[in-house]
Amino acid sequence: MKIIAYGIRKDEKPYVAKWQAEHPEVEVKIVEDLLLDETVNLAQGFDGVVAFQQAPYTDNVLATLAGYGIHYLSLRNVGVDNLNPVAVKANKIKVTNVPVYSPAAIAEFSVTQLLNLLRRTKEYFHKFERHDYRWAPEISHELNQQVVGVIGTGHIGRVAINIYKGFGAKVIAYDKFHNPELEAEGLYVDSLDELYAQATVITLHIPLFPETEHMLDQAAFAKMNDGVYIINASRGPLIDETALIEALDSGKVAGAALDVLEDETKVFNHDMAGKNMDYPEFWNLDSRENVLISPHTAFYTDVAVMNMVKQSFDANLELIQTGNSEKEVSFD
Ligand code: COI
C-alpha cells in the first residue's frame, strides 16, 4: 500500500513519522509541494493521496488522479470548498476530511480576537510604540456585557458558546440544525434577522456554501445593532468585504476580527515581504485600528496539526483497505 502526502510542512513531519512507524506495512512518500497541475504526476503509482492546501484542487488534478487509477483523496483539514463537487463525482474520487481536529483551537482564537477588539489592544500597542502611555480616550468594553450571536452551532460554535458563557456573556445562537442541549437551554433564535437585531457581537462558525456566500452583505449589516463587533474565523467569502468596509465607515460595525478573507489564497501562508499585493480591500481593512486581520491561523495549534495528520492518514488507509471511510464527504 502506497500513500503520497502533498504539502507537508516542517511542523507536520514528526506526526507523519509517528504514523509511518505505527504502519510499517504502508509506504509513505511526503512532498512539500501542493497538489497542483504541475505536481500531480508525482502521485502516479500510489494507491491514495493525502493533501492540505487552500489553493483549489483543479478539475484537471482530479481527472489526472482518476486516470492513474487513484480514487482516494484524504484532506488534512475540514473545509472542502476548494474542490469542485461536479469534478469529484465525475472522476469517482472518494474524499475524506478531518471534521473535528480541534474545535477549541478555532473557538479559543475567535474569543481571543473579540477580547482584543473589546480591549482595543491594537490601538494601545500602536500608542505604546509611540511612547504614548495615556489611557484616554481608548476606553474599553467588557465581554460580560455583550450579547454574543453565534451563527453555526456545530463543534466549533458549541465550544465558543461554552467559553462565552464562562465569561458571563449572554449567548444567542442561530443554526438551521438545532443541537438538543442548546435547544433545551433556549439559546436559539428563530431567524438570522432576530439574531442581528439582538446581538452586540456576531461570530461566524459555518461552512462556505453557495447559499452562505456573502451572507453578511449590505442588507444584513443594515439589520444589525449600531456598533456591532464581527468575528470571522470560518471562511472569507461569508462576508462581502466591500459592504463591511462601508459598515465600518458608518460606525455600524465597531470592529472586526478577520482570520479569513475573501481573496486570501493569494496572500495568506505566503511570505509577501517586499512583494506587490494587489488587494485594495486588504489594505483598507488592515489600515484600521479597529480591524484585526490574522492569516488563517485560528486552526494552527499543536493539537490540531497532530489530529489532522493522524486522522487523514488513518482515513486514507481505511479507504485503500476497505473502499470506505466514515470520514467520507458527501458532495450531493
Ligand atoms: C480547515 O480546516 O478547513 C481550515 O480552515 C484550515 C485551513 C488553513 C485550510
From TrEMBL:
<dbReference type="Pfam" id="PF02826">
    <property type="entry name" value="2-Hacid_dh_C"/>
</dbReference>
<feature type="domain" description="D-isomer specific 2-hydroxyacid dehydrogenase NAD-binding">
    <location>
        <begin position="112"/>
        <end position="298"/>
    </location>
</feature>
<comment type="similarity">
    <text>Belongs to the D-isomer specific 2-hydroxyacid dehydrogenase family.</text>
</comment>
<dbReference type="Pfam" id="PF00389">
    <property type="entry name" value="2-Hacid_dh"/>
</dbReference>
<dbReference type="InterPro" id="IPR029753">
    <property type="entry name" value="D-isomer_DH_CS"/>
</dbReference>
<dbReference type="InterPro" id="IPR029752">
    <property type="entry name" value="D-isomer_DH_CS1"/>
</dbReference>
<feature type="domain" description="D-isomer specific 2-hydroxyacid dehydrogenase catalytic">
    <location>
        <begin position="9"/>
        <end position="329"/>
    </location>
</feature>
<protein>
    <submittedName>
        <fullName>D-2-hydroxyacid dehydrogenase</fullName>
    </submittedName>
</protein>
<keyword id="KW-0520">NAD</keyword>
<dbReference type="InterPro" id="IPR036291">
    <property type="entry name" value="NAD(P)-bd_dom_sf"/>
</dbReference>
<dbReference type="InterPro" id="IPR006140">
    <property type="entry name" value="D-isomer_DH_NAD-bd"/>
</dbReference>
<dbReference type="InterPro" id="IPR058205">
    <property type="entry name" value="D-LDH-like"/>
</dbReference>
<keyword id="KW-0560">Oxidoreductase</keyword>
<dbReference type="InterPro" id="IPR006139">
    <property type="entry name" value="D-isomer_2_OHA_DH_cat_dom"/>
</dbReference>
